[in-house]
Design goal:
The protein is an alpha/beta fold. The chain is built from 20 helices and 21 strands.
């Protein structure tokens, strides 16, 4: 018997992703790099621009992990052409129309330009064509915004601040405009000075750094906010309404339209035009409401802003991402707020962590509650935000250039995913791990947060642990359980696998074998897990509960939710960390394109000889137990498929 076959994770960019992104975006980025900088078209200025342009593309292409990521980014952020087309764009290919609709349904504001044809949009299919959020249907000239909060700038040295400024300029060149909010509360308390002086000094420092790298510069704006009610807010006032509002939107929107970066201090004016110190959370909520079109514009017939959308919340904090004791790198990689908020809050309080973590998490939750589902937040340290913004360092004694690290902010913009998948096993992140491409890099401190989706586990683990049933004891019935919508579950499986399921045959096969079901969101993803009996020499022998094999029978994600939504990670994490922490197995056809994803998350794999199946497992010591190994192989070799088309397609 061979030992487990463990794959090598590759951090290198796939060639097809490079070609896709470079071909479709290089001309646009080159125009942006030269825009507003025509005076430097000769001499040293031109050389500097070319060098910055080269480094910029290195970061962009290195951050794009797959062709799908590149295409999704281009669909969301590709700027509109100045030239009007001579003929209207008509999509003749039905498949292409479907792909365009899937990109649109990602939840990021694309505007009418990228909508499919009316006929394609109206096609009544169950899984793909969902009604769009009114916030998503905006104009083609929409400005995409990342709302950045920089906390404690006095703790950031000049070199790191310069790296952050360069990263912000790169995001602007990628068509993500920046609104930067300063949080100097800690410095005000320490220095015991006027908050206006503190904000003005740090604001000038930040603006100077941004102007060194952003073609259109930056602008310190301290007069755009108004106080509408007394802070702290009365208990009767909903928190999301806030006590602060954007009183003069043009002070922010006009710089954004020309790609300048507004720098906003936590300062507002009351009804008597007196300057007031306000909370940073109040400022962030006010900007989120107004720039996402949820707040009325004063003096314009109470109309909301129509040409801006907030797609990212970025918290630059010296504390970095959210800590946790459940991961080897001691930091959350991805947080699904709908599922994990209460648990993280309890962990922060019970483990004596800084209350600032909970304040930040609560602020992010309130902001994301106002934004489309595809919006996300990133909690990141200033040092990590500045990664790869500078040239590669050289060893003066050897003259070897070190490998540049990916920039998490650029990676997040292109993929809307964390740098490291949250469902990867801890061994993949170990400093002494077996995957060189991962262990050679510093562990990430950033945390990607999404509003996410609820997670339903049946039976509820808080009430009933998933244990093998006793002989003759019935298990849950998928088609007769109050918490399971079986037709929707079948539709999810058929959409994910792209083939019809013989539902009755499947129900008969798993009768009294179901261990449990995991459902993410509105049946956007799910898993069906069973207890399987290994075949014995004598079929009449009674089953042995101690030898029942935990088996992942179906793992499905809607096609429109595959990719950056994180549904697969959410379901897989629940399975291996909550439902079956001691191990589970499954099988997949050798030609299944999803196998790479399975390889990365399993403890080991084994090709079943004389079959088309590959077995995967998460048990830590499976190969050391001969009897258990034979039981697992027997189950994976003999499971009977239940597809209605009876064709050999990937499972």
């Amino acid at each position: 018997m061979s030992t487990a076959c463990l794959p090598t994770l590759r951090s290198k960019v796939r060639p097809e992703a490079l070609k896709c992104l470079h071909r479709d975006f290089s001309s646009v980025a080159a125009n942006r790099a030269n825009h507003g900088n025509n005076n430097n078209s000769h001499g040293n200025g031109d050389k500097r621009d070319k060098l910055a342009h080269r480094d910029f593309f290195f970061d962009v292409l290195n951050a794009s992990a797959t062709r799908r990521d590149a295409k999704q980014y281009l669909a969301r952020f590709k700027p509109t052409s100045d030239k009007k087309p001579t003929k209207p764009l008509v999509i003749h290919d039905v498949k292409e129309s479907k792909q365009q609709w899937q990109l649109k349904s990602s939840g990021v504001n694309l505007g009418q330009l990228y909508l499919p044809t009316r006929a394609a949009a109206a096609t009544p299919t169950f899984s793909q064509h969902v009604e769009q959020d009114p916030q998503v249907q905006r104009g083609a000239g929409e400005v995409h915004i990342a709302l950045v909060c920089l906390r404690a700038p006095h703790l950031i040295d000049d070199e790191t601040l310069d790296g952050i400024a360069l990263t912000m300029a790169q995001l602007v060149r990628l068509d993500m405009q920046i609104v930067l909010v300063l949080n100097c509360e800690d410095e005000v308390v320490q220095r015991n000075e006027s908050y206006k002086d503190t904000y003005r000094r740090q604001g000038a420092r930040v603006v100077a750094a941004l102007e060194r790298h952003n073609n259109e510069g930056a602008r310190y704006v301290d007069s755009a906010l108004n106080v509408t009610s007394q802070e702290p807010m009365p208990a009767s006032r909903p928190k999301v309404l806030g006590a602060v509002e954007l009183g003069i939107p043009k002070l922010i929107t006009e710089p954004l339209k020309r790609s300048a970066i507004p720098v906003i201090p936590a300062i507002a004016y009351d009804t008597t035009c007196k300057v007031q110190k306000v909370s940073v959370s109040g400022v962030m909520l006010a900007l989120t409401r107004s720039l996402s079109g949820l707040a009325a514009v004063p003096g314009v017939a109470d109309e909301p802003l129509e040409d801006t959308s907030v797609d990212r919340i970025i918290m630059l904090d010296p504390l970095g991402g959210l800590p946790t004791e459940t991961r080897q790198d001691k930091a959350h990689v991805f947080v699904n707020l709908e599922q994990e908020f209460d648990g993280i809050r309890n962990e922060i309080q019970s483990c004596g962590m800084s209350p600032h973590y909970l304040d930040t998490l609560s602020l992010v939750r309130d902001c994301l509650a106002l934004l489309p589902p595809a919006s996300s937040a990133l909690l990141i340290s200033p040092e990590e935000a500045a990664i790869s913004s500078h040239h590669s360092r050289k060893d003066p004694g050897i003259g070897i250039t070190t490998r540049r690290q990916k920039n998490p902010l650029i990676h997040n913009l292109l993929t809307n995913k964390p740098m490291i998948s949250s469902s990867l096993p801890a061994a993949r992140l170990s400093a002494n791990g077996i995957i060189p491409s991962i262990s050679s890099e510093n562990a990430t401190r950033s945390t990607l947060i999404k509003r996410g989706m609820p997670l339903m586990i049946v039976p509820d683990l808080r009430k009933t642990p998933w244990t093998p049933p006793q002989p003759g004891q019935p298990t849950i019935a998928l088609d007769n359980h109050p918490d399971i919508n079986f037709p929707r579950l079948v539709a999810l499986i058929e959409d994910s696998f792209r083939r019809p399921l013989d539902a009755q045959h499947y129900l008969n096969r798993i009768k009294n074998r179901v261990a449990g079901v995991i459902i993410a969101g509105e049946y956007e993803g799910g898993a069906i897990l069973t207890w399987e009996e290994p075949r014995t020499a004598n079929p009449s022998d009674p089953s042995d509960p101690t030898r029942l094999v935990p088996y992942l029978d179906k793992f499905a994600v809607l096609q429109r939710s595959q990719g950056s939504s994180g549904v697969a990670d959410i379901v897989f994490q629940a399975m291996v960390r909550s439902c079956f922490p001691n191990g589970v197995c499954w099988r997949s056809r050798s030609n299944n394109p999803v196998n790479k994803w399975y390889f990365e998350r399993s403890r080991g794999t084994w090709h079943l000889q004389d079959t088309q199946w590959t077995m995967f497992w998460t048990n830590p010591d499976l190969v050391a137990d001969q009897q258990q190994w034979e039981d697992y192989v027997s189950v994976c070799r003999n499971i009977e498929p239940s597809w209605a088309d009876n064709k050999a397609k990937p499972d």
